Amino acid sequence: MQIHDFIRIYEAKTDEELLVVARDMGRLTLEARAALESELSRRGLQQTEIEQTVEEVSPMAQVITGPYSSTSEFLVGVTRTYREHFWLFFTLIAPAAVLSFYLVLRVRERAISALYLSFQLGSRSMEATLAEARLIGYATYFASWIFFCIAYAGIASAVVRLGSGQTPSIHHCFANLSNRKWPFLKISALLFFLLGIAVFFKNLVVGGFFLLFTREALSWTGRLFEYAITLIVMAAVSRLALAIPIVLHDAVGARDSLFRSDELTEGRWIALFVLVFKSVWGAYILGKLPFWFAGWTSEYFHFRSWFLTLASVTAVALVEPFMFIGFSLMYVTARGDDRRAPQEAAVQST
Fold it and tell me: Does residue 29 share a domain with residue 123?
């Protein structure tokens, strides 16, 4: 970024936000530092005011920046962060949950049904129908992935701002995304591709297991094996999940962000397993629970389909933020055990 870009960004900040950025001025680029000093001078903000903001650290900022001495303490910090800012995180994730549900379970089904109808009418071959149906499926899953990546970006920005002592708004949560939208789309697409490769190899392992142990394929042993392999694959891929906040807040490229994410998550396997298990499998169970309950009580109660759908989507939206908040806290705490980590993230986002 050029110096005039930093000047425009700093001019739009409040005095409080500008002082937060100035806490870690020594870590800025030359262009950013020159623009910041110019804006501080223009507003008449003094060094004593900057030092005073360093001493004023909110309890929430202390929770987010850590340090954490154990995985259990880290998970407690994730839970507390979510609980104390529940409506902010729920608001950030809810649109992604709603849009993903509608896209995957409505648009995809209708499009594929139309393809098979045209096949039955003889206007296309089976090979072409299957190819287009598969393409539509991949496209809808990718769009759903992007929706949740956008929500993750907003949650990560919110956590970084909370860690620096600020009170984030919805607008502030997506400010970094608007400034780094192309790198964000690039890393999101790359992560989707890597996840696809991981799922492919997972299917090979599970398929090989079922070929060797055919009788176990439909048993609880086979299901538990498949669930365990899926969890391991998801946890392995999650080591790269910090690439999104790194791209947004550290202003690095997609490839470098993957290596950096791998470094920051080294030795954090237990925390990653818990985050993935609670959000992925928790979302699956809670999302299915309204329909299971309706089936169990069908003799006594009749629930409308729209009510069950609403309950399912709401349940998913309630549990999903936990994983994203955890990744964001991991990003902040892994960069240092003092306030300079979230401050640098807030600075570099500009």
Answer: no
